[in-house]
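Q: Can I see a sequence and its folded structure?
A: Here is a first one.
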Amino acid sequence: MDVQLLTYIFVGASFALYIGIAIWSRAGSTKEFYVAGGGVSPVANGAATAADWMSAASFISMAGIIAYAGYDASVYLMGWTGGYVLLAMLLAPYLRKFGKFTVPDFIGDRYYSNVARTVAVICVIFVSFTYVAGQMRGVGIVFARFLEVDVNIGVIIGMAIVFFYAVLGGMKGITYTQVAQYCVLIFAFLVPAVFLSIMMTGHVLPQTGFGATVLDASGNDTGVYLLERLDQV
């Protein structure tokens, strides 16, 4: 079977899966639309959050900048990951307890100030547009590569799919779609990492392979640590 045809089949199947999840989990109330009804399990929430982290920004851009800049680019990785942890620990629990759906609502009511609410709205819009712009560009590049279309067409296709399941399913649809994406992404991350670790260091676990020394073509220890070798690329 032709490779391009296989690509169309896999991409089409993934689209059908995401749309099917959106239809199955379509929101029936405001609470379901904004916070998935508060009934998503911790495991599903964790998988959805992980899928957000392993998005185009990290799957393509973060990997690329670390490969290009070496150790110096690890600061982006730490900030990226640390930001998720800080949000999960310092903002999300209080937003949930306060009973508000959005950060501007929480800020405005918490500090009894419409000015604070307006500032929060501006910050959310600025951050969201910055993030979404990078994500959509990544989507366009991926679709341009695999579907052999222009990058702009790829962006439009991605936006149409996201718009459909986001509007129909709300946060509930997005969460379960992200869970499905997590399964795909974690597989795509782990398989190359495991085999590269085995080939380069002899370690099955990439986590231990990062702290090991590189093997040469004959399987002998070169005495050069993997991270040191990667920083020389």
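Q: Show me another, different protein.
A: A second, unrelated one:
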Amino acid sequence: MKSSQITRRELLMQATTGLVGWALLHSPLLAHAFPSRAGEVLVPFLDQPPKPSSSQANLLDWSHLDSWMTPNDKFFRVSHYNMPEV
């Protein structure tokens, strides 16, 4: 039985290739590799809550998003506690 020696350079190359492959598989950029096809229909969200009555709430309507980036005017935050006085 012959034992093969792996060099440090080969080990680093294989480890780097494996890490890059793993990172690409878990990347949201992979979704761009498979764009929507002709005839596909967007499934609407059926559980959207009714619009809030107060004008302070800035809730995001998921059905109107057309990009991976959320525009500044559509960005919102939720606060369950009062804001502290500074």
